[in-house]
Write a structure and sequence with these properties.
The structure is a homodimer.
Chain A lengths: L13 H22 L2 H8 L3 H8 L2 H8 L17 H15 L1 H12 L1 H22 L6 H21 L3 H5 L2 H17 L5
Chain A binds a DNA duplex through helix 3.
Chain lengths: 193, 193
DNA sequence: TATCGTTGCCAACAAGCGTTGACCAACAAC
DNA sequence: GTTGTTGGTCAACGCTTGTTGGCAACGATA
């Protein structure tokens, strides 16, 4: 997820290591933290449970390694202030559709301390800078970013986690059409109160 | 939660029973389904774990008894179509602020099959009828209700479960001011397509 | 060929889980 | 007072969990 140079000299066990990570992501996404047991993950990856411990230390270490995520949000500098809403929503739906790591993170964040902490970090490091650039008064950025995240994560929750049928049935374009104005307003509309 | 007439003749163990339910709600809300162990719930209520089994059969039964919830949504018939958004948001914030059952349900729904099923039931039985009355074309009610729930549950997620600091910091009136127009639009604005 | 670190499998551990059944104390009916 | 029902305690069960250490096979180096 974040190794550009071959600082690590290509171990013979790399195949096993990535197999474990893939299985872990799948199980965390489907079951959450507690029910995704190391034994189940190992069986899913066709390896021995003890290998997980050798390569990732313990279950927390495995989780940390499995769900390191870069939202790849557009560069705040190059973001047009007028269609920031549409851009953000489109990008989010894309990410969620193809990347099960996000579902894993949301499921775990709901019941696990470390998972929630990780989500707060992503919020602060990745979404907040965008809001800081897109909204008029930087001092309002945290509140506006929180509103944006409530709508985006709420959609993810009802669509990918709780699976409300009408939410699952929405076409990506419909989602963008409905949510883009909301996000746009949260970012740029004058503060009510 | 739903006994109007004294069909049950007031057992001597009622105090214990409700103490268990209260402790269960608290633990489910704080820890989710798996980590809220029967032993922890029992200790919290100062009773023996075996009493939980005697009175509620098993852990699933306890959960079902602990999180039966009535959203007490306003009667769809008496709902003014013009400020349905504000009414709904105000009502939701009120409920979430005072009732930890909702947090318990959301936490459990994220990782537990039965919990998610319960949330889908509440959505279909309680929110959908309101949408059916408030939106122009009844055929669009499911999609519109899904959008409304995505925003409302998203706020609950970031505020009460993940506890994003800026989301926690929002005053109830701010929440209403920002979210009411969103919900109103999801209910009554012409379908974009 | 001998050596040594790496990779993998296996069996086991202690702890915690949901759940059960035997047993005692308090009360109600007769 | 005796009897039967109810409320509550205690100890244990079978099972799963995360985690550990020993041991055999492999691959490169010498």
């Amino acid at each position: 997820m974040m190794q550009g140079k071959p600082s690590t000299p290509a171990r013979r066990s790399d195949a096993t290591r990535t197999a474990i990570l893939e299985a872990a992501r799948e199980r965390f996404a489907a079951d959450g933290y507690e029910r995704a047991t190391i034994r189940a993950i190992a069986k899913h990856a066709n390896i021995d449970p003890s290998m997980v411990m050798r390569y990732y230390g313990n279950k927390e270490g495995l989780f940390a390694a499995a769900v390191s995520i870069d939202l790849k949000l557009p560069d705040p500098a190059s973001l047009s202030r007028d269609d920031a809403g549409r851009t953000l929503v489109t990008h989010f739906v894309d990410m969620w559709e193809k990347n099960e790591v996000l579902t894993a993170l949301l499921r775990v964040g709901a019941t696990n301390q470390a998972g929630a902490e990780r989500m707060r970090g992503i919020f602060a490091d990745q979404l907040l800078p965008v809001a800081r650039r897109a909204c008029p008064d930087p001092e309002q950025a945290p509140a506006r970013a929180a509103l944006v995240s409530s709508q985006l994560l709420g959609l993810a929750l009802t669509r990918y986690v709780l699976r409300f049928p009408p939410s699952v049935a929405l076409a990506p374009e419909e989602i963008v059409a409905w949510l883009a104005p909301t996000v746009q307003r949260y970012l740029t509309a004058p503060y009510p109160a």
